Amino acid sequence: xxxxxxxxxxxxxxxxxxxxxxxxxxxxxxxxxxxxxxxxxxxxxxxxxxxxxxxxxxxxxxxxxxxxxxxxxxxxxxxxxxxxxxxxxxxxxxxxxxxxxxxxxxxxxxxxxxxxxxxxxxxxxxxxxxxxxxxxxxxxxxxxxxxxxxxxxxxxxxxxxxxxxxxxxxxxxxxxxxxxxxxxxxxxxxxxxxxxxxxxxxxxxxxxxxxxxxxxxxxxxxxxxxxxxxxxxxxxxxxxxxxxxxxxxxxxxxxxxxxxxxxxxxxxxxxxxxxxxxxxxxxxxxxxxxxxxxxxxxxxxxxxxxxxxxxxxxxxxxxxxxxxxxxxxxxxxxxxxxxxxxxxxxxxxxxxxx
Length: 354
Hints:
It is a single chain. With 354 residues, the protein is α/β, with parallel strands linked by helices. It folds into two domains: 3-21 and 165-299, Rossmann fold, CATH 3.40.50; 60-163 and 302-334, Rossmann fold (3-Layer(aba) Sandwich). Helices cover 39% and strands 14% of the residues. The protein contains eleven helices and twelve strands. The chain has a six-stranded parallel beta sheet, sandwiched between helices. A six-stranded mixed beta sheet has the order 7-6-8-9-10-12, with helices on both faces. Helix 5 packs parallel to helix 6 and helix 7 packs across helix 8. The chain is elongated. The two termini are 22 Å apart. Residues 62-318 form the Periplasmic binding protein domain. Keywords: Signal. Residues 1-35 form the signal peptide. One of its GO terms (molecular function) is carbohydrate binding.
């Protein structure tokens, strides 16, 4: 990193209060005092909140079907789900082999229904393709927790847990605006390295970035797209650098492809810009600690782990004691905080290996 970039970085590593909230919703969090007995004036026989939801309860079987671990974030999804289940002695975890084949996942769900599991947690390869099978599970009385990729019918899931792709773009753009203001960059040259352009998640991230930049009178001057892989990241970043002699800020959507992006920066001997990443890999967090990267925007790899916690509560007929409405929510969207040198230690445990 050049002396100029290091000087910029020192002056600008301030916390964005609204964007550095805890990334993963603490769905298992409960009060330390016993819940009061119902006085009969409210819920008539429905689910009631309990204290100490993490205390052992009735043993339940949770079926889990996730993706093939061909990407660092996806591997983290699977491992986090398994690790969360292992924390509870009252969970019997039936985990299917990861796959990118919708037909295989349909077979997983059919198997779970046949076994009579108590709940299913599913990150679908294709939400639309898995909707019918998930609906069949719901109709069989098995609550389904849908993770990350939505079904095409809301009746296919009891709970949907999502990362915030649009929010990622907003977080990255808001942080870029802060950099522009604090460093008096004026009409800054801002570049974007997107993921696969045909995917709605990429479109949402780009739209959020554009919308946030417009709030401070900035826009995206250069944009290229990669494919969420190291090789494509390096190729896209190389093309970007060849097309632009001077760049002030670069946002890369995905920290896995960011390995290739960073290699392209090093090959071109370019470091005049602030480098912002996306997703929250362990590599990115180590680069932030080393002063080689400005920030990354988290896309929580805890979604399936949160799904396991919620599935356990649903199967045990428990609610969330930290909510006035004690039922488990139908929809949860996790935050997309900005991770900087100021707070990287807080988020390092969530970093996944690329």
